[in-house]
User: Fold this.
Amino acid sequence: MDLTPRIETTLELAIRTAATAECPPRLADALHYAVFPGGARIRPRLALAVALACGDDDPVGADAAAAAIELLHCASLVHDDLPCFDDADARRGKPSLHRAFGEPLAVLAGDALIVLAFETLAAARVRRPSRLAPLVGIVGRAVGAQGGITAGQAWESEEAVDLAAYHLAKTGSLFAAATVAGACAAGAPHEPWRALGETIGEAFQVADDISDHVGEAAALGKPTGRDKALSRPSAVLELGLEAAVARLKALVSRAAAQVPHCPGEAQFKALILSETQQFMPAGLKARAA
Assistant:
């Protein structure tokens, strides 16, 4: 099932809601620029796929949760590209937001997207309002200072960093939010889905480390070689390329085994295997098979 229309429709509505007459025009343009056109939308697609596997009895709630997670991801990219962090010139094949709109508007747009994520959840006309409070907690935990993506970014300022903890916070936390929120939005027991999201997130980050080491900027739509240039924690720099590829392969296998029992278990496992296989850079896929 193509989940893209559900995701894009909800994101478009969220951005239109933010870009009212009270929003300065250039800030409104910056918000749209940060979200569209999107990347692979992996996190919101994962959230909706889990919701579907669990019955998807409240699609509006699932759509709002998925959109909130993607808005937070987009905010993190805007902030990650800033001169004080990666100082990246490009993102998703176009100039990074601070290059296109200036650093002040990039900071503000990232902040506004964070707020908009929670506004989107709060405004959703869900069938099961009792699920909103736990959804807000799930999403908030994924971006905060206690193991969320804020903590992940902050680990880069520490002298000693545990690679697994860094990957779990910077990347795994938002993937975990996707799986847990998808189950929660569908009214299923949701904490059993956390381990799967964390594993997928770690696999994605290891693959990203590999891409940063061997990928091409034109194909990725962003600069490469940043981990080494900025002395950031990296699976390739810590383990070596061959060991990083082996770790990615092991994580993909683990993810398929971590899918909790649910009505759509078989189809979801097949989806996970298919999606995670795409993480590997094209030139290395045969080595990870």
